[in-house]
Amino acid sequence: MKSALHCLPALLFLLAAGCSKDDPEAGLPAATHTGANTAGCRINGQVFVATGYGSGLGKVAAIGGGFADDSAYYLRLNGKFGDREGSLHLFLNSFPSKRNQGLVKTYALNHNTPVRPAAIPSQCMNYAAFFPNDSRQEVYATDANHTGQIKITNVDVNTLNNRDVAGTFEFTAVSNLDPAKTIQVADGRFDRKQ
């Protein structure tokens, strides 16, 4: 009995270490509503965090975008997953531009639509897309068969210069070059102050 009690701390440590390895939140920024300018998700199971990439004059900011054309809302999340750099884009073609403290709404990503920058915002439906930096031609985007959602969990539009939007997202996207290639994006979250 006494030897079993000596093993208990080691057993508890091993169990805790095993649980943290499987934690879906591991490596991702917290899902906040404070205008923290953070974002992340899992792409094909690998952590993707908006940290930017490059250096010097070629440095790409971690998060860009915001309100555009009075009703559209878009985000560019720039970072790495594994050894790949890229930009993940979220676009909503109709988004409330007035103060909506605590608004919660889910937007479906389920239309065939052109994506920015090849199209202007008024031509686009809601979509999500991933632009890998190792290919100038390839884009993974949602469509009628590869769907997902963006859920806005908080909106605080106080003034023109103080607009906080937070939300979650998940989707499947297909390559424009090879319809057999898809990516899975899960556990997505963002908290953006514009």
Q: How does this model look, in words?
A:
InterPro entries: DUF6252 (IPR046219). It comes from Hymenobacter properus. This is Lipoprotein. The protein is mainly beta. It has one domain. It has one helix spanning 2-21; strands at 38-43, 46-50, 63-68, 72-81, 84-92, 105-109, 127-132, 140-141, 148-159, 162-175, 182-193. An 8-stranded antiparallel β-barrel has the order 1-2-4-5-7-8-10-11. The radius of gyration is 19 Å and the shape is globular. The model is unreliable at 7-21 (pLDDT under 50).
Summarize the structure.
The chain has 194 residues and is mostly beta strands. The protein has 1 helix and 11 strands, in the order αβββββββββββ.
Secondary-structure element series: HEEEEEEEEEEE
Structural class: mainly beta
- Poorly predicted sequence stretches spanning 5 or more consecutive residues: 7-21
Distance between the termini: 61 Å
How many domains comprise the coordinates?
1
Summarize the biggest pleated sheet. 8 strands, antiparallel, barrel
Tally of individual helices: 1
Cα gyration radius (Å): 19 Å
Shape: globular
Mean pLDDT across all residues, rounded?
Answer: 83
Estimate the helix proportion, in percent: 10-25%
Strand content: 35-45%
Question: What is the number of E strands?
Answer: 11
Trace the largest sheet across and list its strands: 1-2-4-5-7-8-10-11
